[in-house]
Amino acid sequence: MKIKAMDNLFTTIINEADRDEVLIEFALSGGSATDTADWISRHPAHASDIALFAADQWVCGKDADALATSNAQTAAIATVGMDVLRRMRPQMAPAVAPTAANVVVRPLNSLLAAAKAQGLDADDAAALLDIPQPLFVKLHRRLIALESIPRDFINALASAVGRTADEIAAYLRQPPTLAAGASFRADDTPTVGTQESFADALRSDPEAMASQREKWLN
Amino acid sequence: MTTVPPMRDAENDSENAQQMRGNWPVRPLTRARRDGGAIYVRETEVERQVRELSALPDRIRKERLLASAAWGDSQRAREETLVYFLREYTVRGEDGTAWEIAEALSKRIALHIQRAMRRWRLTPEDEKDCVQDLYAALWEALFRRDETSEFWEVRFWVCLDRRLWNLIEKRQATADAEVRPGDESPAMSDNEMESGLERILSKMSGTDAGPEALALRRDALKSLNENEVRAIYLVYIAGLPEESEDPLRPSAAKALGVTGRSIRNYLKRAKEKLTAWERGDN
Which residues 219-258 in chain B show a CB within 8 A of chain A? Predict the structure, then answer.
């Protein structure tokens, strides 16, 4: 059974290579509309691939990627890609661990500022991470206990704001911050929020969707 | 006379020293073309980038590879170049740099995927599945070290798009299902639509269209779904018949793996949408 599975795998790889080859040859030939019919008749088994490629080129032109714009959704797609790679080749992925003596960490002073540097506001960053916005703000204010945050989320947060996992961990390890707009009048005592666990914060957030809880708490 | 190679001395190891300074030997492609047996070659610009970057000191090579140059900038490393060096750094055990190159590729692909997804009608769940499967196929191919994976260094986007379309098609929603006879209620006669369509397509046909024609084409076609676009292209631009009983004669129906009736339905809906676009209704 193992031999048959390997045979199937090799067949799949060879078939995929055949499909790549025909399409690349078509692309190298210039792939004009008048060629399409000719190529389809010569390679009927690859007619669909040729048709899709030719139609795509006709619609978009060769320089279509110049028109693409970067936004939170694009960043989310890229994050998915790196998560897939991390699962497939965990030995390649940067480790998430407490700061080692030989690791150089750039100070991170504000999660919101880091997000802004990536062109994201709090809503964008939360959408990218698939968490409710109030939770992102709590993370920014360090109201979530570091040890309660899943490693996958730390990595996703690091990727979203363009920092390393070590920098995120170092930031979140610091004491909670004061709320924005806290008053320092003499008769008021400025207070900081108390920390809670990531799971409790996500469960209790009325803006959290069931899919978000499912994703991060399982 | 047999020459005995000198003992390796770590400090004077010219190969190691060269690798630290740069001067990585350029790995040639090995996959041969089926027609004449010639070996596939990388595009001229890709080959130039690979040679130039291979000769640089490692620190500068990394900076150049990972620099976020804008699209169209001559300093921007081509995707085929990134694939080449992703493999080279992986073979050399430099996982950290390989990871960074993979990240750069992942971001570029994300832009492309986002644009492609806009043209389809997938559910958010199907979109997510497509993205994950595409990246899995990509990384599996890029880290595989055999000649079948060399195509990614020859034409990266062709290889990626083929897999993307294949994944999307499998998940295509029934929104593209055939129009049942009872549902058809054309607003105008077939003759009126046919002449209108010819007029519309004459404005935007041609595979070497300039920027203005391309923009017009995209604007006209944005309301069509993928099957409608393909049907229009195959029948009116590539000149294929809608269907053919001759097994040796290609047709739009055979190319898309559907019936002639489906092709006619795609064309009918496409014509209605394009006519509405020309009138300014869209």
Answer: 221, 229-230, 233-234, 237-240, 248-250, 252, 254-257
